[in-house]
Predict the structure.
Amino acid sequence: MKPPVTRDPWAELRARTPARIALGRAGPALPTKAVLDFALDHARARDAVHAAVDWDALAGQLALPTVRVASAAPDRATYLRRPDLGRKLAEGERLRPAPQDFLLVIADGLSAAAVQAHAAPLIAALPADLRTGPVVLASQARVALGDEIGERMGARMVAVLIGERPGLSSPDSLGVYLTYEPRVGRTDAERNCISNIRPQGLGYEAAAARLTWLVREALKRRLTGVELKDQSDLGLIGPLAHRAVP
Amino acid sequence: MRLRQSLGATTWSFADLKDLMAKATPLRSGDALAGLAAGSAEEAVAARMLLADLPLKTFLDEQLIPYETDEVTRLICDSHDAGAFAPVASLTVGEFREWLLSDETDSAALAALAPGVTPEMAAAVSKVMRNQDLILAASKCRVTTAFRDTIGLPGCMAVRLQPNHPTDDLAGISASILDGLLYGAGDAVIGINPASDNLSNLGDLLRMLDDLIHRFAIPTQSCVLTHVTSTVELIEAGAPVDLVFQSVAGTQAANESFGVNLALLAEAREAALSLKRGAVGRNVMYFETGQGSALSANAHHGLDQQTAEARAYAVARAFDPLLVNTVVGFIGPEYLYDGKQIIRAGLEDHFCGKLLGAPLGCDVCYTNHAEADQDDMDSLLTLLATAGVTFIMGVPGADDVMLNYQSTSFHDALYVRRLLGLKRAPEFEAWLQGMGLTDAAGGLVPPRPGHPLLAAR
């Protein structure tokens, strides 16, 4: 006799969301297949955290000059335990001042896959005046590394494109963090964020439009962060208190 | 103050009370990151021994963060109830542990004590408590709150239904809500973390939740977890706001990094109260916290992360919240490295919050860059449920597809209800039964064909 598994008669709702709904149950517990599917996705996400970006390939996709820098975290294991090191440049890193209104930084963050797949197409979708070089490519980097980079280069504003924490269903989410007048010591409340950029989430064109609106507005109002609320119906922008910044 | 402990030939000395508190803390990566952790296992125990001998009232005489420079310290000092503190005023930290665990100390005694306990006292005693002590003492604490249903009654555990969607798609979110309701979850709150903080999007989410709750007369409350200033704007614009959400931390500077202060929270609470939307109670605030938030904002003042976290509960309790949620494993391995550290922190947070009189729930969770997995979450969930946790999260299949981390599922809640006989909030339990979704014992009943909730899809 087959053991009794209760099926859920709303399975067709699964088409509406990537969430794990209508899984059915064995008593109060998950059916065996759902348990093992979850274990496989977790195993893949764990493996994704430890992968590295192919920076040469990425630089090749950008039709812009690039500069490579590294954070003070020498390897992934240190990076994971020491976010302070990921927020500052490695000793001896030299960045020439290149004053500009808008500086692009691509940082690996917690998902090499996100950066590899989505950074170049997102930049390609930006208007010409925001496709500016040099683009800084930063390894073992956290969001706040953009503050030191922007300050040293004399940028009015920095946008850090960074791999977000890999999720079970989205190992390749790209985030953008925009900071006006970047300088060491900025808090996350002084940034605006666009999250979940990937074809299955927020598409390149939509993300580029939102970033463009934010940049224009930030230049006009001379700030980013909590006080720069988006009322333009573009969405996805706001303070970061409830989420984890890579 | 002389802070020295001799053990055999070695004398361990500690710079000040903060240093002693930090070194007495069971090992975790965040304190090591901050350079505050004990340098050896023996030093940690020496610190615990010294801490156990300190009079509890030391924490009234000496502030870990100065009164003059931190409004959270001012809140803690100014709201301290000396009368409530009297029964334990003569005890040391170690004796306080014994008092908490004594058979004579019952729920009434603990409830009466709460306004007399400061977060530093709670943190200090927790550092000399084992996991079983944290569980037993917390299980005796009762904190009851209410809005459209009653949360925290004896033998009950509530669930926040967390139906997040990566693009806030209304149909996707409502699919997850239906899944949760049909699994008997949602009595704590139906709470959405929005992907977008755009005000019109937030308004759409609030109206969708409000429609659903009223259409089916569900005795629960809604919340869209956005910044407190956005929620106030939404209230002013006439949006149907039940609960005001905000992340809070245990220092003024950390709260500033979240863009909030105590006055702003008070203003938001007044705005929500003015709507008079509660049916059985007036607790309108929902706070989230987590060890490491002060350090991650570089706003910890040399405090260990667990003590800073306990101070966040002093912030929370000042606003009579319906729910306070420690999102224990969310912040990442740089603060809580592995399953062992996450489990310990979850039990500490729950104990400290309850001792202070806050309705503590726990997001039993981990991220994919931490050394943890579902087995660790099963352990923490089971331990917290035995400790009387006020509520847990219910995320479809434990996988939050918007925030990219793993929490507890609707199934997990069913498991722990079955194992320990835990009930839902009584109003919600009655609603489920009335809807034909549970039997008299609270067990799930598959919905009949054409059930109104299924038809609602």
